[in-house]
Design brief:
Blueprint (H helix, E strand, L loop, with lengths): L7 H4 L13 E9 L3 H12 L5 E4 L15 E2 L7 H34 L10 E4 L6 H14 L4 E3 L1 H7 L8 E4 L3 E2 L2 H14 L3 E3 L6 E5 L2 E5 L4 E9 L10 H5 L2 E10 L4 H6 L5 E4 L5 E5 L5 E8 L5 H15 L8 E11 L6 E6 L2 E5 L6 H17 L19 H27 L1
Parallel strand pairs: 1-2, 1-11, 2-8, 4-13, 11-18
Antiparallel strand pairs: 3-7, 4-6, 5-6, 9-10, 10-11, 12-15, 12-16, 13-14, 14-15, 17-18
Helix pairs in contact: 2-6, 2-10, 3-4, 3-10
Protein name: FAD dependent oxidoreductase
GO molecular function, one term: oxidoreductase activity
Organism: Lysobacter enzymogenes
Amino acid sequence: MSILADHYYRASLDADRAWPALEESTRARVCVIGGGFAGLNTALGLAERGVGEVVLLEAQRVGYGASGRNGGFVFGGFSRGEDALLRELGPQRARALYQGTLDAVELIRARIRRYGIDCDATEAGAIWANWFADPEVLRARQRLLAEHFGVEWQWWPRERLRERVRSARYNDALFEPQAFHFHPLKYAQGIAAQAQALGVRVHEGSPALALERDGEGWQVRSERGEVRAEQVVLACGGYLAGLRREVDAAVMPIATYVMVTQPLGELLDGALQTRAAIYDSRFAFDYYRPLRDGRLLWGGRISVRDRSPRQVQRVLYRDLLRVFPQLAGVRIDYAWSGLMSYARHQMPQVGRIGEGLWLAQAFGGHGVAPTTFAGERLAAAIAEGDERWRELSGYGVVSAFKPAGLVAAQASYAWAQFKDWFKDKSERRDR
């Protein structure tokens, strides 16, 4: 097996777009710090609302972090489960928040069409496959979504699932028809290009080194330039900028792992008779999807540390063969890890944290739709005075208690893995 050094998404771009570094002192109405989905969606949302003089600064490349390296699943919801949202917020507020992410899925679809973004969008839904024999976890979620969130996921019995997913590993499943999957880096570059076309000044290779009050506004200093802005949006995710201690202290950068196989040809058809995205019902779940060029993308695991491509391949290859032993011997062409930002409460931190200072972070591995949702909330707040960002105010900037919090997060994940293993082993023993 061989691994190419770069990740698949970067290597598979038809044309790798680039934006210039900031090399001047400039003024802006809004300065967005971070060129991932949260920052890009905020900038584009502002531009679509007619807000001029928006500057976006990205320390590396557009989509460099989790936004350009993730699994590419586009569906509703947050990392925090729907049952927890109901307990904490009540049915009306929980449904409104969840609906915001469903609306975001449709906005992503609409932008792909409206702006002609070629991002390999695959309209095939998503499958939540049951790793365990007990169907109640699926049935309970299906009922909860239908009764409290107005969402209908289809029940697939084991026979129907195995017609489409050729694995003896799974039992029944739920199918989410509204979901789709795409090439996230192509999409990130596409919305950056559209934001630029609408007047946003996008700058790569321009880390924000200092953030200070400047009269009634803010001064953002980069390596070779600075931005004096009326308002600033911090959207740095797991790649902390070191600009505000309380902001960085509120998130844990957590790594996840992804690999991509060689083009599989008929072997892919022997494993999948669907083009849907798939993930399973464990806490420590696998997620995977077929790609347009006949490869299989496979992701999973989380950790408080990055691993080398070789280590990622070794861990995920074992996971792949547990589900599809018929793929033994296939070559892995790409393997990588990347950092996501998690909050202790497992919800995004979105809103105003100071006069003219806004925040969008902690999307916790479930960010494609929620980052779009957050960008719309912040853009509407800044452009129109819309107060709906306060819907998330109950999930604020709370300390992640690092480094102890990182140790606790890893221990919690290991405990969840053990419970998954024990439940699976118990079911097999009782058969």
